[in-house]
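Researcher: I'd like a structural prediction for the single chain below. Treat it as a standalone chain; there are no partners to consider.
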Amino acid sequence: MNTISQQLKGLEVLPLDVLLELITFLPVFDAFSLVSTSQKLHTLRSNRSFWHILIQTLRRFSVPLACPLHADLTQNLEILTLRTLQRQQTILLPSPSPVRVKNYLGYLRAIESISIISGTHLYLTCDLKDGMARCWDLTNGNALAEIYVGRNILAKSTLSTEKGKFLICLLVAETTREFVATSVVVLCLDYLTSIDNSVPDSYSNVHLSILHRSALDATYPAMYPSCAMNEQGLLVISKMATFIHLIAINLNTGVKAILETDLTEMEVDSVDLSFRGQDLIITTSSTRSSGMYTCSRDNLPYSSDPNVTTYRQHLNLLPLSVNIPFSPTVLSYERCGFYPSGSRTSNGSIGTITEMPSKNSFATTTHYAITYEKQGAEHYTECCFWHLDAPHAGEVTPTEPVHQCRLPGLQFFEVPCAGSESGAWGAFVCDVDLDIDANVDDFGHDFEVDVDVSSIAATSAVRNMETDDSKAEIFLVHYDVFTRTSSVHRPLLPESLPGSCDWREMSSRSWVNNIKSIEFDERLGILYLMVDGLEGGMLCGLEFI
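Model: Treating it as a single chain, here is the predicted structure.
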């Protein structure tokens, strides 16, 4: 005891700048333990530089702060740090329990989720009746802005470009009976929010506008499964016809490029897109094989002849991976999509702290149903995590999944799984009690694409999921990009949802089978659930802090 006491006294006599320098080398929870050991060290908590150091440590370990991405963190560093740590302690439990379950939007007429605005209580929906996109303030249930986009959203991509600005690319059809996109819409949400964590969030100057709208050729056999945007203002849409094409549009100059590939619809069932900086990553999949390719920035219309507005060229795709691994006994295989993850870089000084996402890695998700002759049946969903480092000139990046993890059961094909903003989290709805001892013909592939830099999209499993034999569960997957390890968390779910009186809820937790969409805001620690009902859609949230 005397030795420990002497060591503490040795620390107490150190100059303040030396103590703060030592704290920079400690994990955040160890730093809290240190300042709790003596009254004098405890006084460090009143020093703003102490909280600044803890925030920098959290960001160094890629832990998103409990505030919007581009927030200017000049106030309330202590409250922000404590809320972030409280969230991490809760959601990283094996079975995190929500502190409250809220009904944000009661039963409305047919609505679909568009996107959360991470770190805020703003939420975007689309009304299938009138085609209006609406931005809601979930703190009071009021619609703050609306604009027409289309009645049927078939694919989307989101991008947080700067403070108070959020872009959403939508591939839409005019009616819910159409399954091929007829136009591409780039929706811009502008908003101002207070980051004062001592009072409820307040929003002002919320405005929705159309940044770009153009028609797509919906002539058979054309399909448009995915789209992606980047911060340089480039929009790319994948087109599946006889051959696979990429339609690239520079939103700043209006230049449009049609890139023709050698891939055909006979060898590709789906195409997903994501940006790695200015390069485009293309993932293709089918029941036979899957591939990963890169399209160099040199082939994309970042700069061109000002007299040329549209051009067409043949594109030689550079393979990043010959084949995405899959089991030779696969009964059902489908890509889930991918999302960025990785460390964050810092800009600014003590007075100004901002967060910038890194996009050097992503995850794909594959669905397996494997039958063993003697051991019965096993079905599971497997997440494969990939790290893509920029290759040197003239070199192909060798890529293999750096980590894989399994979820019990097959994912509900109707519910796209969701990746978090940083890519560290994925949210899934899986059937953990599925009887796959059936004819192989019962397994099929359907597509409901929802791919972007902030969310993964899921499709595939068994066509008849919502049966009496199914047992739905929600899983959260956490991936640590530094240790390349993952953990699976099964949140404790309520028996029923507040304000729900659906006749289909005959047994406890049967509402899970009615989930239409799921999204996870890792910043606020909220799991958003859009639940289908007889009276329309209902948006609920499981709040973990």
